[in-house]
Structure formats: C-alpha cells, structure tokens
Amino acid sequence: MGASQARKVRTPSATTAPVATVPESAQERVREQILRAARACFLRFGTEKTSISDVAKAANLSRGTVYRYFTERAELIEAVFAYESHLFHDSMRKQLESLATLEEQVVECAGILSSFEHDVASGARSRIDVSRERLAMLLTSHSEPLLRDTVEFLVPFVEAAIKRGELRSNVNARRASEWIGRMLFTISSMPAVTFNGSDPETWRRFFREHVIRGLT
Fold it and tell me: What is the pLDDT of residues 166-203, one digit of tens each?
C-alpha cells in the first residue's frame, strides 16, 4: 500500500512538470519571418526553384527551424499564398471601412485594382500591400483559394447592403460576393474592349453601371 501511495505521489509531479515552450507570440513572429523570407525568395528565384535552404538563409534561421513550422515545401508554398491573400484583403478592407454603401465600396475596389498597373509603371506607392508580381502569382497559382477568400471578404459588405435595402432582399449574399469578386479580378486578367481600360475612372463607371445595379 505504501508503494502504491508513493506511485500516486510521483505521478502528478511527473505530469505537471513544466515543459519548455516558445510563447505563442514569439512563434507567430518566427512564422511571419519565415513567410516574409519565402515571399522574397519566390520573387527572386521563382516558386518552383525556391528551396527550404533558400528560405532559411533569407530568414536568418536554420533549416530545422523552418521545418518545425512547415513540415514540407508544399505546405510552405500554400502558407505563403494564404499570407499574400490575407495582406491583399486586409489592405482592401482599410480602404473600404469609411464608405457607406456597397456601390461605393465595390467601385472603390475597382478603382484601386485598375489604378494598380498605373501605380507600378509610374513608381507611385500602391494602395494595396501586394506587388504586381505577387498579385499575378495569386491570380495564376492560387486563384481558387484567392476567390474563396474574396467571397469571405465581401460577404459582410453584401449582407449589410441587403439589410440597408440597398440590394434586393432575395439576393444570395455568397453568390453575389462571388459575382463581384470574379468581376473585380477581370480587371487584372482581361483587357477592356468597349472602353479605355487604362483609365481607372472608366472602370469605376463600368462597375457602377453594370455590376452593382444588376443586384438592386
């Protein structure tokens, strides 16, 4: 019985012994450090040619540290694309928060995206946190997840517009969000045919006249 009692005393002390862990905030900082390094490497070497060693060197970390956060290269690539998408949508959200209607919000999105090429060509600072190369990479290599993220980004704006009576009450918020998202990404992927696509104001008019009004 004494031995049994001794075992009962030892067991809790073993299970509650402190374990050395990295604080969550520090883990997030290291993870973001890796993602930023991988972004830079993808642009410099290309996604397919970038190795874990390249990323580790750019992040000033060991390969083992990178592998602790991303167990394989494919997982790191997906995480970088998701990170790019997050930065893109977060930048867009900041531009839309002060606008009162869905029409203003979507027209502003169209204006920002259509101004993108002009900003890059002129050397002006873009209003969204993504380079031309990174946006092209998202649209080509990550288009389905990007559109999915865009739908999630737009749904709250569309739902609010339905509640305000700005859109028809029978509008499906998710499908309307996908429609708007698809149309927005054609600005970067398809040239304009019936109007001057190099002028952001014509894109704004196009979206005001043909994209939003079909939902009202």
Answer: 999 999 999 999 999 999 988 878 888 998 888 889 99
Task: Give the domain ranges of the chain.
Answer: 22-71, 82-215
CB 130 within 8 Å of CB 42:
no
DSSP state of 124: P
The residue count of the chain comes to 216
Distance of alpha carbon 182 from alpha carbon 35, whole angstroms: 27
Whether 137 and 149 have beta carbons less than 8 Å apart is answered as: no
Burial class (CB in 10 A: 0-12, 13-18, 19+), 213: exposed
> Is domain 82-215 classified as CATH 1.10.10?
no
Name the architecture of domain 22-71: Orthogonal Bundle (1.10)
pTM of the entire predicted model: 0.73
